[in-house]
Amino acid sequence: MSVSFIRRFAAPKKALAVAAVAAATTGMVLSSAPAQAATTSDSSARTVAKQMIPDAAQYDAFSKIVERESGWNVTATNSSSGAYGLVQALPAHKMSSAGSDWKTNASTQIKWGLDYMNSRYGSPTAAWSFWQANGWY
């Protein structure tokens, strides 16, 4: 085995070991909790949305918008505009009208997003049609 071959594989392992030691020294945990334990995970936000939007076509349209806007990340923030959350509300604090926990609660953000889509476009499917035509809603 050549020395360069060994170096190519030893260096990444060493870097990983150094990172693990540094993380342990500073008190960071490298393991994560199960996805179902997180209240703001992608899967739990989708589950909440399905419960709140029983019509399959409306849910599908809502889901397509959220997937493109935030990737189902409850704390997604657009660094240039400040848009925030699942539905990328702008300004973000507008979602407080749906609840004081708007920064972290998927249900609150979904409720606000549905209200927004229904009042501005008539429905999530109409909002999705607009999104497709314009790349935003």
From TrEMBL:
Pfam families, per the entry: SLT (PF01464)
The protein, known as: Transglycosylase SLT domain-containing protein
Keywords: Signal
Domain Transglycosylase SLT positions: 60-126
Coiled coil start-end: none
Keyword Signal: yes
UniProt KW Signal keyword: yes
Secretion signal span: 1-37
Organism: Streptomyces shenzhenensis
